[in-house]
């Protein structure tokens, strides 16, 4: 792209299963160039559903891995797309209950912003505490494989005092702190992240959507990142 700024929206859309009209209003209000989706719709007719979802936002569906997807606006050229299935424990235990987990994944691609070549990567980590450490290690391997500075965003499923955040800091990534992101109705946990390579310039933007739409659209609040190129 030829512009000097790029708007990237990271959003857990809760399988496109809540208020789709409110969700479309939120995304359109944010006007992203790139949307990094967690919990994209799946099962029967996966690609058809994801293309239909993207169309309601005025975007195009271009890439996915597991339940992560990347959507782009017209004029955005995402190249070198790479996806990775992420190992995660099949079961997790919480209190006295055992629940199964779906496979994880991460996907990314390369953009040119001004004179800056960068990658954008989306992930969604699991609910098994120790499993998340193995997952983020694999995600970071994918990020490094692009050979460029990168933005990594997604649902971390862990608050900032956890080991995943420590590994992100040890990687030298800049944490764009948006405050609590879950739940969308009563935000009290910060479990969604947007982190940048130190070579990149970026900031979080205020969400232009209304509070009722944010609450109705899905159970997470989105992160709207503005990247600046040289």
TrEMBL record:
A molecular function GO annotation: endonuclease activity
Signal peptide location: none
Domain of life, per lineage: Bacteria
Matching SUPFAM superfamilies: DNase I-like
Keywords assigned by UniProt, alphabetized: Endonuclease, Exonuclease, Hydrolase, Nuclease
Domain Endonuclease/exonuclease/phosphatase as annotated: residue spans: 9-201
UniProt name for this protein: Endonuclease/exonuclease/phosphatase
Species this protein is from: Kribbella jiaozuonensis
């Amino acid at each position: 792209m030829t512009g000097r700024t790029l708007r990237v929206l990271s959003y857990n859309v809760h399988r496109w299963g809540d208020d789709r009209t409110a969700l479309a209003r939120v995304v359109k209000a944010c006007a992203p160039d790139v949307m990094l989706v967690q919990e994209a719709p799946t099962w029967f007719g996966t690609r058809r559903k994801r293309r239909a979802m993207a169309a309601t936002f005025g975007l195009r569906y271009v890439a996915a891995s597991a339940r992560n997807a990347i959507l782009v606006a017209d004029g955005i050229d995402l190249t070198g797309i790479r996806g990775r299935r992420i190992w995660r424990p099949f079961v997790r235990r919480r209190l006295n209950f055992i629940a199964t987990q779906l496979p994880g994944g991460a996907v990314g691609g390369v953009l040119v912003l001004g004179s800056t070549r960068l990658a954008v990567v989306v992930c969604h980590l699991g609910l098994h505490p120790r499993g998340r450490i193995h997952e983020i290690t694999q995600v970071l391997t994918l990020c490094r494989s692009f050979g460029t500075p990168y933005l990594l965003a997604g649902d971390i499923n862990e608050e900032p005092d956890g080991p995943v955040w420590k590994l992100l800091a040890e990687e030298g990534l800049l944490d764009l702190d948006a405050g609590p992101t879950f739940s969308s109705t009563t935000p009290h946990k910060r479990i969604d992240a947007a982190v940048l390579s130190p070579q990149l310039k970026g900031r979080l933007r205020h969400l232009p959507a209304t509070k009722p739409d944010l609450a109705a659209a899905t159970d997470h609040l989105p992160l709207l990142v503005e990247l600046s190129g040289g």
